[in-house]
Amino acid sequence: MANTFISTNGKKILAYRGYTKNADLSSTQYLPPTKFKVGVDSGSYVISSSDLTYAIPIADGTPLDPGDNNMTGSSGGDNSTDNTTRYKEGAGLSDATSQNLIKNNTNAVAIWTETLTTFAIGSKYTGLWIYIKDATTLAKLVSSGTALEIKLGSDASNYYSKTWTTSNLSVGWNWLPMGALNTNTETGTVTGDIDTFIIEITTNNATDTFIAGDVLYDLLRQWEDSDLIKSYVTGYPSISLTTLETEIQCFLNSIEANGFLVDSMALFNEDTTPLMQSVMSITEESKSSTDEFTFIAKDEVK
Question: In terms of residue numbers, what domain contains 178?
Fold first, then answer.
């Protein structure tokens, strides 16, 4: 089931293209839409929406850590262990491993640290996955204040970080987008290689524990604007001057946007800063390496 509408920017594009003199159509603004993005965790869109709530990388981007490296535990955290039963695919990787974040009963704050061999870049979008087994596990996270903090920096004292409360998290896989890494809170001064990756979880009690399978981490990755957007299927848009209907097809192949519950698709134009022409909300569909998605958008002039 899809709910599609043309945004305010889309109406501006159509008005400009439809009513500007031919001599001015070489303008670099309000260009026709030719590309699309897909998104997750969208909520409701309105006519004034200018982008997807959380656009996800269609292309692989740069995997910083595939989730198959054991992390060093400290404070209330023990060293992580491999989980080969539950994991997230994506970013063009073929590994089938995530990390069990093991927590002991000595401290409410549990910390896991890894030194990355592929360095993060401050200006790139960053995200990762955290899995929470069930409501019992989720209820162990501190009920007020910061429950989860992700840190990426040049060392444990100089880093960018983003925090989540328990209310921001849910049972199952949680996609944690951080936006451009260097737009997050900076502690100290991040200089040199961004190679220190830290996960910090706070529970209600020091005695709260996580065993293997309770909380998992997988796939820390980065991407840029070009990884978010893809051109229409060749040959589209198809325009009928008889029915006054335009059809656009957008295609995700088996290696694109894997690991996500896709719930939206939007069309964008060719402006230097692309404008969202229209947006389609759909029932969540899980995208894996066994799936190919085709989105068909039709507009009719009445």
Answer: 62-223
Q: Are 58 and 38 in contact (CB under 8 A)?
A: yes
The residue type of 12 is: K
* Interatomic CA distance for residues 146 and 59, integer angstroms: 32
Looking at the structure, do residues 161 and 200 belong to the same domain, yes or no?
yes
Among 172, 194, 223, the domain boundary falls at 223
Q: What confidence score (pLDDT) does residue 5 get?
A: 85
Report how many domains make up the chain. Answer: 2
φ and ψ of 158, to 5 deg: -130, 105
Average pLDDT estimate for 141-169: 98
Q: Domain check: are 145 and 183 in the same one?
A: yes
Query: Which whole-number Å values give the CA distances from 271 to 8, 9, 33, 235, in the listed order?
Result: 15, 12, 9, 21
pLDDT band at 1 (very low <50, low <70, confident <90, very high): very low
Q: Does one domain contain both 160 and 272?
A: no
Say whether pTM exceeds 0.90: yes
